[in-house]
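S1.2 Input.
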Amino acid sequence: MAYQELFLESNKEASLRYELMIERIKKIPAEQSAMEKYQDYFTKTAEFIALTDKVLGQWEGGTLKSRSDKECEETNRRLFLDLFPENYEKSYGNPKTAVKILGEKFGPTLCFLYAELRAMIGYAFEGRKMNMAILCELFVEIYNCFESEEEPEEKEILNIIYWFFHDYSEIFAEDKVRDMVEPEYDFFTRIILDSDLRDKRYLYLYGEYIGENELGLFQYLNTLTEEEVQSMADTMTEGFRIGYAHIGKDLNAKDTVCLEFPIGFERVIRKAIANFEKLGLKSTVYRNPVSSFARGLRGQRGCYGVSVNRQYDFDHKGDKRFYLDKAYVERHLESMKAAYEKYKNQAKVHAGPAVTEIFGEVPFEPEIKPEAGKYTPEQNELNVYQMSRMGQMANLYIPGDERSFTIIAYPIPAIGEKFQEIFKETVKINTLDYMSYQDMQQKIIDILDKAERVHITGAGDNRTDLWVKIHPIENPEKETAFENCVADVNIPVGEVFTSPVLEGTKGKLHVTKVYLAGLLYQNLEVDFEEGKITSYTCTNFDTEEENHRFLYENLLQQHDTLPLGEFAIGTNTTAYRMARDYGIEDKLPILIAEKTGPHFAVGDTCYSHAEDVPVFNPDGKEIIARDNSVSVLRKEDMSKAYFNCHTDITIPYDELGSITAVRADGTSVDIIREGKFVIPGTEELNKPFL
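S1.3 Output.
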């Protein structure tokens, strides 16, 4: 297999190092030589590492594929058992528990180490012995510090962790870049293409948690006909192709496309791979990041399973704080640049991601734990700086104006007993006739293009009162301010959107309940002045301090403010009706939810890093509202132009009072009044409300 060849040399180099370390680690439970307070932690962690070593041995012996159902299930359960919600209160992966048992001095640090070592699961299933060896060395070095009658100095342990990430940045950086753009790294695609997809044992080859949702998806998709599965794959790949046509770029100049998908969806992904091959594209797949080095704020990425425990994920989202400083950031950026240089030829011909998202989990309201710690103000600034530089680097090697994407979403069994019904309805929503929407949306755009600004108000308990300034049109025959969004990169169909003029955009955005990136926000309230956030709050927690921190870290993503990067009007009332009929409004992904009402994105514009690329609507008019006064700063200083985030906040139709287009002379036209579309020719959009 090709991916094995990629690691052949490093595995040979790491073999002796690994064998020495794993032999040492396996002795730890019997030695009982650590300080009594810490012995149980080191024993249990050593036993976990020994379990990953058993998996590695099966990989090396070629027996992973021949395991019985029972062995597959038992190994998977044991690898993730400690994170199950019912066990988490006793887990050293829980910062509250770690501090309670291990103390405030080392509890947080050892909890971090516990989480970092879980990357060994994936490494074992892939046979990445070098990655396993260096993590074993990290564990043993820290363990040795506790093999005395006196506690080590806290600084000593932190230094070990710091220099580990500093010294091995090249390995982690190369993993990140190669796995995305190099088709020879085919660990995941070989599972998809070579396995019997009706034998559930293939699910256990990934090294990801396989629970009821993964098994449920696998079982349901195996009830679908070849034609049904092919149609689902066609919807995604055709959307990707149309996305390239939309930006006027030649897809033939590209060689690879990166697939992101949930485990259990392999029948669809196999056909998508074949479709992309017909378009001249080889598929790449990377693993959902586990290490703090590569983990971001977007949630599940790459090839992923449903989270074992979202509280665990939330508790560890700030783990980089243990080693994040200016020197480390520069080292990280240096390593990423070297990795991109090594794979620059592959990066240049990378077409972008084709993403399959999932939805249906019960909305998650996290517990904020003081023991989990947080970034210092200086580290927050470094995080923002690093994300900005990383965005610039990615767009240098994989030019943003030369790539596209597509995203589509489907429900998982966690959505409830009507999962199969909802899945079928979602398939219908994803394949709605975009031509009829295109026509109705054009009627809305024709009104909006004459507006100087748009006034949005809430109804009932919704306190929204927001004015959005619209880019002026100089040549109405050839220009437009709004994109007529059909089902291409952003499936399903159903929105018109623009990048607002920041100056003159002001007021309050409020929604009583919204689900963003896996987190539930209660009474989210954001105030804007000159198009930028000036204040924000919610009612998730008892204190304003907790609410402010929650929004700062998750919505603003550690920025002091963000501009309003997008204003859109969703038109997919069919999706809205489905959500109401099945009571799943709070479970819709933003991909669908944004089509079920007006939405407002904070962060970068819709055309981030591609503002200079002309984009045209189906009627031939160029969309000229691609920039704002922040994004245009890229011409002077890229670091001031982009925030590397774009979060959509939707007001559902039943919380909406009106959307009114106001002309320069003060006259106005309602687009929506009392939650209903009122422009002649758009009456069809109101039928799902009946």
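S1.4 Remarks. The chain has a mean pLDDT of 93.
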